[in-house]
Amino acid sequence: MGTFIQLVVDGLSTGSIYAALALAIVLVNQSTGLINFAQGAMAVFSAYIAYVFVGWGVPTILAILISLIISFVIGAVVERLLIRRFEGGDPDTAVVVTIGLLTLFTGICGWLWGYNNRQFPSLFPLDTINVFGAVISVRSLGTIAVLVAIMLLLQLLFIGTKLGLALRAVSFNPTSAALSGLPVGRLLMVGWGLAAALGAVAGALVAPQLTLTPTMMDTALVYALAAVIIGGLNSPIGAVVAAWGIGVLENLGAVYVPFIGHDLKIAVPFIILFVVLLLRPQGLFGRKVVVRV
Question: Total domain count for the chain?
């Protein structure tokens, strides 16, 4: 039982990192209809910004908060100066643009800070606690708590504030929103800024668990994309639940399914993805899109 509890908690912790990145992808998709393949690289850039401030003696939590603000600005600027030129156009072109952004941000990180591994301080203490025989790290519990707090804040934003309602209106029908007098351009910038800030949270959470390198979020991005497709592109809650499910099932499969083991556990989310696409192409929590012709 102790091993099972530990695997579940660690899986939820890892899944929370995927979920933060998945929420950012869903947020961009809901506001612009695009999938931002550069989300992981932008998160790494944000983690390096926090790393610089920590090196200047700024407390870790304050450095992360500063990086969130800077990331918000970077996301808004990217949308305004680059992405807006391709919104509503050929989606294939937009995909190429975001892949180009991924390469650009990765290259900038390597150029400024190099490709050597760097130690990033943990936001949480490295202590452990014993729960029914399971040794659980405080960092795992803290990571889960951060993701839950983000979910609640986003829910409060989109349901209980005028800004959230406006963002939802723009994501649902930007043309009608513009005719209603909403500043669609500014709201799209805010959407991209929020997504970049969410990505920065994921970068700050994963950097202490691995080491800070320009490519550290590549694997997490793949898992996040799988979570988005499994949960549904138009369902933030579905993306979070799917990310948690991926993290937990991957851990359990590696230990309890002999032929999977630790070497093949990366295949677990893609097996789930294959089954979901066969049975429910819009995702477990997604909505079918009806097009009138």
Answer: 1
